[in-house]
Amino acid sequence: MDSPGITLPKEEPPPPAPPSPGITLVPPPPTPGASPDSPDANALPGSGDDTAEPPADAGPFPEHLRRQMNSVRRTGPNDTSTLIAALAPLGDYGVSPEEATLIGFGRFPVAGAARYSHDWWFPRFGPGWRLHMGTDIFAAMGTPVRAPSDGRVRITNGGLGGLAVYVVGPDGTFWYLAHLSGIAEGLSEGQAVTVGQVVGFVGDSGNARGGSPHVHAEFHPRGGGAVDPKAILDGMLEEARLQAPDLVKRYADAAAAGESIPAPPPPTVAPGPGRFEAPRAALLYATAMSPSGGALALAEAEATRVAGSLDWTVFQTQGLAANVPSTVTEARVRTWLDPLTPPALVGAISSD
Fold it and tell me: Is residue 1 in a domain?
């Protein structure tokens, strides 16, 4: 809702849902010891900002911020549909659409149907009036998020950006990818990653909770202030589109020679206590990539969820087995159940 006296620029709508079913989950619980309202004190700079409803008493959008916003020479919205079409011939050689996005999207960070607008320096509120410091890439919940560059990762969970991954290059240049729903299996703090490697999954964590799933992509050259990433993202898509014919030819040549090119492994979410809950939409994506392995992961996740809902001792047993403090286990349980509990009952439980 716009505040009195100002009309905010509107965001591009999210892309249509993919043909396969997807399930939106509550974002993962905060990292133990981290405040959900404050960013990690040791995190790299990253705004993680998103659309927030300004309160009635927010006051007018400051004139100096309006001038700054209006100084941007904006370009039109963009999406991945043209690139997806350019990669479609890979299907003739046994490459699924999901595999095609993983091998043919170049440096673009979201591997699937996605769209974005030139929303750099759009108004944001919370706390106070400020400007959007990145580009929001909208995609279905659980769509894989890839490293746009080589570097080492930093994982944070909390504050405006929610669950986020930084990809930091040798010269300090980094990408900040926020509002994720999960982290890729095997990814750990400080790990080296390469361009195109899956690091997480599209979500709505942080102050994007309840909104359209997306990734807030923010770019900091040499570790300095954020710069407008729209043209960079456009360039990534165009670069991948131009490379698509060569990629298709490589598969065609391999098929003509009676050879096969190994398919990329399906991305899966990091499991285990102390990590983050796997979004079922991401597991459904894995099922499409690998019917046997993905279905097994989905079945295991559902079995774990049902077991936990039927027997509270499961949480205690899991916590003890992993040497997780009972307070952490309780916080995670409360995070899952509080949205389903009547406010009066929440108050009564909290007073015990």
Answer: no
240 and 304, same domain (yes or no):
no
153 and 259 housed in the same domain: yes
- In the chain, how many domains are there? 2
Q: How many helices (H) and strands (E) does the chain have?
A: 9, 12
CA quadruple 208, 199, 338, 46: dihedral sign: negative
Q: Are residues 181 and 328 in the same domain?
A: no
pLDDT tens digits, 234-262: 999 999 999 999 999 999 999 999 998 99
Quick one: 49 and 91 in the same domain?
Answer: yes
Start-end of H helices in 40-117? 63-70, 81-87, 97-104
Residue 2 domain-assigned (yes or no): no
Taking all residues of the chain, what is their mean pLDDT, rounded to a whole number?
75
Q: What is the mean pLDDT of residues 268-287?
A: 55
| Residues forming a β-bridge with 79 | 115
Ranking 94-103, 105-114, 197-206, 332-341 by mean pLDDT, the lowest is 332-341
Q: Which of 25-34, 63-72, 99-108, 277-286 has the lowest mean pLDDT?
A: 25-34
In a shared domain, residues 327 and 233: no
- 193 contacts 186 by C-beta, under 8 angstroms: no
pTM score of the predicted model? 0.68
Distance CA 105, CA 113 (A): 11
Range of the domain at 269: 7-275
What CA–CA distances, in Å, run from 274 to 83, 230, 302, 316, 323? 37, 35, 19, 14, 10
Looking at the fold, whether 269 and 304 belong to one and the same domain comes out as no
pLDDT at 27: 33
CA 146 to chain centre: 9
Q: Are residues 255 and 293 in the same domain?
A: no
Axis crossing angle, helix 326-337 with helix 313-321, rounded to the nearest 10: 140
